[in-house]
Amino acid sequence: MSISIPVLMYHSVNDELRDSRDVSVKTFESHNKYIAEHGYTSLTAMALYKALKGETPMPAKPVVITFDDGFRDNYTNAFPILKRYHVKAVYFVVSSRSGDDEPDFISWEEMREMEKTGIIDIESHTHRHRKDNLEIIGRGGEEEIFEDLTLARKMIGEKLGKECRFLAWPQGHYNAKMLKIAEEAGYYSTFITENGPNISLQDGKIRRFKVKERSVFWLRVRLFLYGNSFLASVYAKMKKIGF
User: Fold this and answer.
1) Within its chain, how far is the Cα of 122 from the centroid?
2) Whole-prediction pTM value?
3) Given a cut of 80, is residue 25 above it in pLDDT?
4) Residue 116 burial (CB < 10 Å; 0-12/13-18/19+)?
5) What number of helices (H) and strands (E) belong to the chain?
6) Is residue 72 included in any domain, yes or no?
């Protein structure tokens, strides 16, 4: 059975647990401690892309940590833990939202600080975080989507001095037209919120599983399932039909 790369999706690390997607500081630390102590190799988005394309060797136990939205606790709470355990993570930020204007989000200076460590890889969660992208496409707004994706790449590039090549769709909403537009806008691949194996980039999509306030045992089981292409495929099908 071939190796699949498990890709975890977090949002916010805080002890208030205001949202069902939130993870406490203690739980996030336990997750990273497990990953660090059990031989996993954490990858950036580019390292994942190259491994799935066969351009670089696949690590024995690869894993990718991702965060969506760019909340400030990703800097104040998550980043110190990631540094402590030397676990890399991909932060998908909304380029129109930064702590420079909105205190709930990471500032550009904080992003630059994190990028310099090599621990954090900043990528695109679009420019405006539109939740109605499918409706926009439905009314023929391809150019509007293209401009939003292009502006996000441009702003991240200018602010951080890097090439932004990866995208996570807001709310996980996308269709075939949007994937094509993302490619035309210069993105190499897109991260989605669907479960399943990651063994190649034939369809240009990278699948992720959502992480909530769950135990290390819960994480251990899912890393095992999503680290095996056959099991990941079967488990995704079971979840789809409600098991």
Assistant:
1) 10
2) 0.96
3) yes
4) exposed
5) 10, 11
6) yes
Kindly give the pairing relationship between strand 205-206 and strand 189-191: parallel
**What total number of domains does the chain contain?**
1
CA distance 93 to 96: 9
Tokens 């439905």, residue? 138
CA 223 – CA 53 distance, rounded (Å) = 21
- pLDDT grade for 92, boundaries at 50, 70 and 90: very high
Evaluate whether residue 47 is within a structural domain: yes
DSSP assignment of 47-102, as one string?
HHHHHHTTSSPPPSSEEEEEEEE-BTHIIIIIHHHHHHHT--EEEEE-TT--TTT-
Per DSSP, the three-state class of 25 is helix
pLDDT exceeds 60 at position 1? no
Domain that holds residue 47: 7-240
Q: Among 115, 204, 209, 210, which Cα is nearest to 167's?
A: 204
Nearest residue to 200 (alpha-carbon basis) of 37, 48, 10, 21:
48
Residue 54 CA to its chain's centroid (Å): 20
Which domain CATH number covers 65? 3.20.20.370
Task: Tell me the one-letter amino acid at 137.
Answer: I
